[in-house]
Each structure stands twice: as C-alpha cells, then as structure tokens.
Give the backbone structure.
Amino acid sequence: SLDKLNNQVNDGELIILPVAVDTSPQQARIFFERLEVKTLETFYLDGKNVPDEYLLIDLFPTTLILDTFGRMVGRYVGEVDWSSGEAIRLIKSLKSCLPESENDIYNSCKH
C-alpha cells in the first residue's frame, strides 16, 4: 500500500522510505520485486553511513518519510493501510509543512 500511496499523492516533495532488514540488499530487492513495488526505493539498514535517527528503529515494519533534503519529517512504526484516507491526509499534511530550501526550518504544523 506504500507504493500505491506514493504513486497517488507524492509529487517528489517527500521520500517515502521503507526500511529493509533482510540479510542482504539483494534479498530486499527480491522482496520488492515479488510485491511488484514500482515507485519506491528500498533502504537496507546495515548500520554504516546512516544518520543516527534512522538507527533508532527497534520495531518493524517502520516507515520513514524524508524531505528532499534527507531530513526525517515523519516516522510510522507498525502496520498501517497506507492507501486509507487517513494515511493520504497525513502525507498531504506533511507536504504542507515542508521548508522551501535546505536552510529553512519547518513550519509549525501539527500532525
């Protein structure tokens, strides 16, 4: 459902990042291919060269939502129907608060 959500509401302002914890990046890609995920990239968590806030993942599934500058603007732990109206409203709400440049800070939106 993340793939459908990304295709439906994301116009490049956000990066929806499913985190893979398979034993290799190749296994994560095979899993995505089997699910026919077309609009998302997988992020393989190996503990190297990753921002600290990404490593605070202790439950799966975990979904990270980044702005185009790589800053985390949303995080959801657990299963969710990302094609639901509530999830779509959340993504649209996040998009309305994004800064216009890398040096801007986020608007004071409440999600």
In short: The chain has three helices and four strands.
